[in-house]
Amino acid sequence: MTGDEVEKILESAKDIFRQQGSYIGKVNAERVLFIGDTHGAVNVTDVAKYYYDKVDLMVFLGDYVDRQPPNGIENLLTVLNLLVNDGGRKVIVLRGNHESPLTNYYYGFYREVKEKLGEGYYPKFVDLFSLMPVSVTVNGYFCTHGGLPGLYNSNGEMELGIYSEDDLYGLPKGDIIPDDPILFQLLWNDPNSAIDYFSLNKRGEGVFYFGRKVTEDFLVRTNFKGVIRAHETADGFKVDHNGRVITVFSSIYHKQRAGLLFLNNVGEFSRLYISQDGSAQIVQGLY
């Protein structure tokens, strides 16, 4: 694919992203497929593509580049082509923490772009990433890459940073790093079933673990059913906070299985596991 062809796809995808807020809002669909971190695993993304005509909505939860041997551009363009050809009707592409120069400048994507397309193309990808939406609510499940955010109150204690769904609609677009603390934590935070509230996260400054009571508070305030996210390596899936927080991990660089999560029209989940050798297995339920 030539540089001009790549740029055409990026511009078409940006046109769709510009029409979406950081929070897309509520979407309902009968058959939904959720895809977590793929990190250059084009073979897994191709499996997801296979289901395009078999589901009513596809939700990509971020992290398309870095980590995998250098297929980040190909993997990202596969996702963006799906989005552009669909016109954004039944494909949602969310931003992950690796869709930022804070990470992808150092974890392989910058070098890949420089070698394959030329250094001048990297800012075009950075601009694209800054326009991506960060969250959406699908069939009552809040979907984002990382996790629930917190803010310090006047007593120096951290509390949930989202008081209602209206707060999500007010989040900014075009934030490159992002520097907004709520946006940043939506991309970076992780659940922890051993705590109730917030604690510092080993990932670094400004990143936190959120506990069981944080999730409970968020679901009560918003009247959502649960949280579907990605971001953490897992053997396909991980479930926290009594089934209220579901992690989907769709890459295979970590030498475990990739996972794709299905949600049907009666609210039942099923899990598709993709092994290192390409074999697949579908399991009903979350456990």
From TrEMBL:
Q: Which SUPFAM superfamilies match?
A: Metallo-dependent phosphatases
Q: Where is the Serine/threonine specific protein phosphatases domain?
A: 94-99
Gene3D superfamilies registered for this protein in UniProt:
3.60.21.10
GO molecular-function terms, A-Z:
protein serine/threonine phosphatase activity
* GO CC annotation: cytoplasm
Q: What protein name does the entry list?
A: Serine/threonine phosphatase
